[in-house]
Design goal:
The chain has 163 residues and is α+β, with helices and mostly antiparallel strands. Helix content is 29%, strand content 35%.
Length: 163
């Protein structure tokens, strides 16, 4: 306990992506949700990670998966600005259609639902959905991309190794 704070090490799942000669690292921690696809399957699963062992991932539903069985993973990048624009565009699209229709009903205009307003609102909603999809990193496991579990246990650093 240093300075009144107690520190614990946490195991992390590192997804290493090599693209155009550059290495990029994404970290997934215990307690995070992981979207993954197993070899031989066509759909993604989403489970909460409870523990990371040598080459296994343990999920909340007590299923255990070996790292070599993973075909692909999805990682959601938490970019605050992109998330803000996604919510804003989606809400503004629905709000624009609602306000235009309400205005047409109050002023007794025909048709009540204006096709141009639906087109503009649909475009805004589509832009919000597109921003959401752009914010998801899809990684296939191959020679250039790999997974590894890192255990940062610094408790035994002051001890001398046994020969």
């Amino acid at each position: 306990m240093a300075g009144g704070f107690e520190c614990f090490s946490q195991k992390t799942l590192e997804v290493l992506v090599t693209r155009y000669g550059k290495l990029k690292k994404y970290e997934v921690f215990t307690g995070d949700f992981l979207e993954y696809k197993l070899k031989g399957q066509y759909s993604y699963r989403r489970d909460k990670i409870t523990n990371l062992q040598d080459s296994f991932i343990v999920f909340k539903n007590d299923s255990v998966i070996k790292l070599s069985k993973l075909k692909a993973v999805r990682i959601k990048k938490n970019v605050h600005l992109a998330r803000t624009f996604q919510v804003a565009f989606t809400a503004l699209g629905g709000g624009f259609i609602f306000l235009n229709t309400t205005n047409n009903l109050i002023n007794e205009r025909s048709p009540a639902v204006d096709p141009l307003a639906v087109l503009i609102g649909g475009g805004l909603i589509g832009a919000g959905i597109l921003i959401k999809q752009i914010n998801i990193k899809r990684i296939r496991m191959n020679d250039q991309n790999s997974l590894k579990i890192v255990d940062l246990n610094f408790n035994n650093l002051s001890e001398k190794p046994e020969n």
